[in-house]
Amino acid sequence: MEITDYLRKLRADFRFFLAEIWRQAGLPTPTRVQYDIAHFYQHGPKRRGAKAYRHAGKTWIAVAYMLWRLFRNVDERILFLSQSLGHSADSSHLAKGWIMLAPFLRHLKPATSMQEFSRKRTADIRFDVSGAKPARVPSVRACGITGQITGNRATLILPDDIETLENSLTREQRYRTQERFGEMEQVAGPHNDIIVLGTPHHEDTAYDYLADERGYTIRSWPARYPTAQQNVRFLAPMLREDLAAGRAKPGDPTDPERFDDEALIAHELRSGPTTWLMQMMLVSGLDASLRYPLKLSNLIVFDLHRDKAPVSIAWGQTTNTGSTEITTIPSPGLQADAYHAPAMVDQQWQPYQGTKAFIDPAGTGKDSMAWSIVGFLNGYLFAKHVGAVQGGAKIENLTIIAKSLREHDARELYIEENWGGDMLIRLIRPVLESLFVERGDKKYPNGWACYVEGVHSSLQKEVKIINALEPVMAAHRLVVDRSVALNRNLGSQIARIRNERKCLEHEDELESLACAVLEWKDYLDVNPARQAEKAHEEAAEKTLTEWQRKARGIGKKPAWMKW
Predict the structure, then answer these.
(1) Could you tell me whether strands 140-144 and 126-127 are parallel, antiparallel, or unpaired per DSSP bridges?
(2) How far is 332 from 485, CA to CA, in rounded Å?
(3) I need a labelling partner for 284 at 20 to 30 A (CA). Which of 5, 44, 116, 233 fits?
(4) Rounded mean pLDDT of the chain?
(5) Residue 372: which H helix or E strand, with range?
(6) Range of weakest confidence among 9-13, 207-211, 285-289, 457-461
(7) According to DSSP H, which parts of 408-496 are helical?
(8) Under a CB-based contact definition with an 8 Å cutoff, are residues 186 and 225 in contact?
(9) Cα–Cα distance, 105 to 95 (Å, whole number)
(10) What confidence tens digit (pLDDT) does each residue in 402-427 have?
């Protein structure tokens, strides 16, 4: 009786099934938000979609739902779609693993004997479950969003994260993604289910299109309860009820068992405002100001030194003496966007922990060869120099760049290998070596040498630039020299870059700055305040040690040695 009741409950309630299969797989018990998503999967209308913040566990829930449907009916025909065939195949492979793992699913185990193997499909991208009636299409088929799906039949289609950065950059790409839903409608027919799950990657997201144009019922589960000013469409009823009943207030984490307030704050700092609002808060129709994600006002403008920087520096728009806005540097920013001086500069300075440079080779036409030099100290990035030269990789230009690197003590140089960068590496090496300086030089007492390495990037440049700069700028961790702020070309590029292909005629200098910042990404996971505190402690300890040495006479010459 207990087994019968257990199986009956597994069959009747997907939430119970989800908890049980995750327990068998060694996963945590589903959270309240995950249970709510599961309830919507089971009881929503035939055309439904779940928008949820990144890392909410949408795919894992979907794989469990696919198995629940097969558990209830072995003759289901399920089409699992994702951004790529590899991604959807991974999910299909996970489903097969859970079939083998859970005792209540082992009767679905795909064929293993040679006789059965000859009659049934067992690959990860298409397999039949045991007991299924012979059919032209498999029990489960995995496919990429751009793959061939017409001519198939499915009782359930699960499009999982089919909207990506790569396929939502242009209007044409977004239109092609929307067209795929028309093909899915033909495959599923009017009586079968399509359940879309994902996270938006563009303000004109396909998930809103499904609701507005195709009549899908969409539910949204953001990472925090939204404020009245945040346009979170289709907020899940459970979350609306929490706000109405006073069980939660705007800004509280919606899923604290997975991500508490501290974790969400760290995530927001890493991702930047635009990405945070779109992918974690699920805000639709971003404000016009957020369509231009890089703000000059988030930079700190300061006269930088070649070898050292303050152990701490703070951004702020006002101080006790008034506004920090710099009126002596004309701003190429939009509307009131302007440069700001630091609100606080630590009196203690330290040597940079390193300085790196990046060259963006000239492409075609009027493109410039641009380079940027960025130092690092205690979690802050210091853009010492950003420049550009016309005329390509001629010896005069390479000499200008090499001398600039020596002048700002850049010890590592990275060059984008695209657009002939691999040849540029070979050309600039001897120029750099001719300028190397041995230790003990009067102007460069620590000497100077520079290592050169090529890097490759396949990501669209606008996406790469914004992803690199927005988080550090929004966190006020990028300090630029006054000469960099005076570069009007660069300032205009910063203020006008958008997440849209070819939105700028030229972005050479901005791209070099973004790539130089990217070379420091593995060092940014530090707390600047803690690093500054540690520097002060070390300086105080050093001062105390020196004072004690002098007080004890350590290091002094004996009186008789004066004779």
Answers:
(1) antiparallel
(2) 10
(3) 44
(4) 88
(5) strand 369-377
(6) 285-289
(7) 421-433, 461-474, 482-485, 488-496
(8) no
(9) 10
(10) 999 999 999 999 998 876 678 899 99
Strand pairing partners for 356? 374, 412
Given a cut of 80, whether residue 285 has pLDDT beyond it is: no
In angstroms, what CA-CA distances link 153 with 79, 256, 475? 8, 40, 50
Q: Using 50, 70 and 90 to split pLDDT, how confident is the model at 358?
A: very high
Q: For 173-177, what is the mean pLDDT?
A: 80
Q: Does residue 247 register a pLDDT over 90?
A: yes
Output the CA–CA distances (angstroms, integers) from residue 328 to 91, 185, 301, 338, 341, in the order listed. Answer: 57, 60, 12, 11, 11
Which residues, in sequence order, are bridge partners of residue 452?
A: 413
Q: What does the alpha-carbon distance between residue 248 and residue 246 come to, in Å, rounded to a whole number?
A: 5
Q: Which amino acid is at 206?
A: A
* The pair of three-digit structure tokens given for residue 473, joined into one six-digit string: 């700028």
Q: Count the neighbouring beta carbons within 10 Å of the beta carbon of residue 267.
A: 18
Amino acid at 450: C
CB 19 within 8 A of CB 57: no
Beta partners for residue 160, in sequence order: 82, 197
pLDDT of residue 460: 80
Confidence bin at 113 (pLDDT 50/70/90): very low
In the structure encoding, which two tokens stand for residue 124, read together? 């990860």
Per domain, the residue ranges of the chain are 2-112+119-288, 293-526, 535-562
The yes-or-no verdict on residue 553 having pLDDT over 70 is no
| Alpha-carbon distance values, 63 to 67, 80, 97, 181, 195 (Å) | 6, 9, 11, 20, 12
Residue 453 CB neighbour total at 10 angstroms: 11
Buried/exposed 397-420: b ≥16 CB within 10 Å, e otherwise: bbeebbebbbebbbebbbbbbbeb
Domain 2-112+119-288 class in CATH: alpha beta
**Largest CA-CA distance found in the chain, in angstroms, rounded:** 109
CATH for 293-526?
3.30.420.280
Q: What is the pLDDT of residue 114?
A: 39
Q: Which residues contact 241 (CB under 8 A, 6 or more apart)?
A: 247
Kindly report, residue by residue over 210-239, the tens digit of the pLDDT: 998 889 999 999 999 999 888 898 999 999
Q: Which two tokens stand for residue 134?
A: 């012979």
Are 225 and 251 in contact, with CB atoms under 8 Å apart? Answer: yes
- Quote the CA–CA distance of 322 and 308 in Å, as a whole number: 28
Q: Which amino acid is at 555?
A: G
Residue the block writes with tokens 């990035």: 381
Distance CA 521, CA 222 (A): 27
Q: Are 181 and 216 in contact (CB under 8 A)?
A: no
DSSP per-residue codes, 336-351: T---B--SEE-S-EEE
The arithmetic mean of pLDDT across residues 110-131, rounded, is 65
pTM as predicted: 0.63
Q: Which two tokens stand for residue 468?
A: 């690199």
